[in-house]
């Protein structure tokens, strides 16, 4: 049985696309996922599955959420190995944890897309590094001031994106294999 992490984007924000985590958990168990655990209300899910790979799970979860809750929600799924590697590869790990964020991407962006992103963000005081399906961010000001949003990443990198602060990423890491 394989363990996965699913990150949903844009649920329970300002009262929009409301999904209670207990209801989400039940809906995922109905489609055959096991050991489903959630962390906070923003759509962080750890679960096990024997029948599907990460790409299949993204489609399955997206369809299930739309059918059950009526919301078209971007879903990113990583295996536990991918998640752990993402945690280990943070180039800014020695910085203050309060300034660290991670944007997870649905697919690995092309080199030319990364180059475009780096040009767009070159004038920012924030620092980023793209490694695989992750954009590591060092944001010195409060996050809501940055111009480095999911929309910027999606436009430049041509893939779905969802951002979490580093504390949340570490908390999700703790949920693995518990």
Automatic annotation (TrEMBL):
Domain of life: Bacteria
PANTHER family named among the record's database cross-references: BLL4334 PROTEIN, DUF1697 DOMAIN-CONTAINING PROTEIN
Protein name listed in UniProt: DUF1697 domain-containing protein
InterPro entries: DUF1697
Matches recorded under Gene3D superfamilies: SP0830-like domains
Position of the signal peptide: none
Pfam families in the record: DUF1697 (PF08002)
Lineage: Bacteria, Pseudomonadati, Bacteroidota, Bacteroidia, Marinilabiliales
Originating species: Carboxylicivirga marina
């Amino acid at each position: 049985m394989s363990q996965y992490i699913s990150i949903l984007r844009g649920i329970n924000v300002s009262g929009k696309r409301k999904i209670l985590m207990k209801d989400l958990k039940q809906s995922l168990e109905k489609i055959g996922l096991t050991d489903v655990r959630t962390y906070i209300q923003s759509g962080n899910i750890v679960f096990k599955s024997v029948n599907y790979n990460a790409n299949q799970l993204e489609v399955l979860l997206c369809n299930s959420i739309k059918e059950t809750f009526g919301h078209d929600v971007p879903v990113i799924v990583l295996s536990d190995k991918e998640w752990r590697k993402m945690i280990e590869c943070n180039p800014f790990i020695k910085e203050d944890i309060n300034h660290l964020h991670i944007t997870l991407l649905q697919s690995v962006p092309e080199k030319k897309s990364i180059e475009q992103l780096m040009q767009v963000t070159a004038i920012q005081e924030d620092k980023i590094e793209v490694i695989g399906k992750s954009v590591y961010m060092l944001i010195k000001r409060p996050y809501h001031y940055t111009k480095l949003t999911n929309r910027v990443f999606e436009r430049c990198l041509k893939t779905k994106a969802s951002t979490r602060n580093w504390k949340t990423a570490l908390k999700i890491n703790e949920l693995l294999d518990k």
